[in-house]
Hints:
Mean pLDDT: 91
Number of strands: 7
Order of helices and strands: HEHHEEEEEEHH
Radius of gyration: 20 Å
CATH class of the largest domain: Alpha Beta
Largest sheet: 7 strands, antiparallel
Helix content: 25-40%
Strand content: 35-45%
Distance between the termini: 67 Å
Number of helices: 5
CATH superfamily of the largest domain: START domain
Structural class: alpha+beta
CATH architecture of the largest domain: 2-Layer Sandwich
Amino acid sequence: MLRKPLILMGILSGVFLTILGGITLFGTSLPEEHKVTTQEHLAFSRDLVWQKVSDVEAQASWNPSIASVRLFEENGVQRFEESYSSGEAVTYEIIESEAPHRFVRRVADDMAPFQVTWEIELEEAGPSATTITIQESGTIKNPFIRFISHYFAGHESFQKAYIQAIRRELSKN
Length: 173
């Protein structure tokens, strides 16, 4: 009687390990580095959009993916830590902030499973309109995370969610 459950568990474990190995194998065939650009038109002035992009401390109040933000300075570099409802946190450093048109941030933790830089450009597209362009340059060393990011999450999904959160917040006013 005990043999059947053990055989079933062995088969299920083998299937699970095969799937995990397959994902990792496919992940190794994907490039470690990626570059993704998202560009959208917002029906709001560049100054309003700039306020949302550059005020990183306030992002937890309008971006549903962020639980809290802590702004701090370390060795003369402006940094901020985004905490998420999952309990995870990522520290970024602000590389460039040129009001009201360019904001660049990058993951500050060299031990993180991924390294990502976002270059955010805001261009006036009329008196009350802005074109926002986010270019992500990233490196994902872990082939499993690379596979998930490429096939399930999509590199541009975070950019689109960020822009949608800005649009939703500015539409409230």
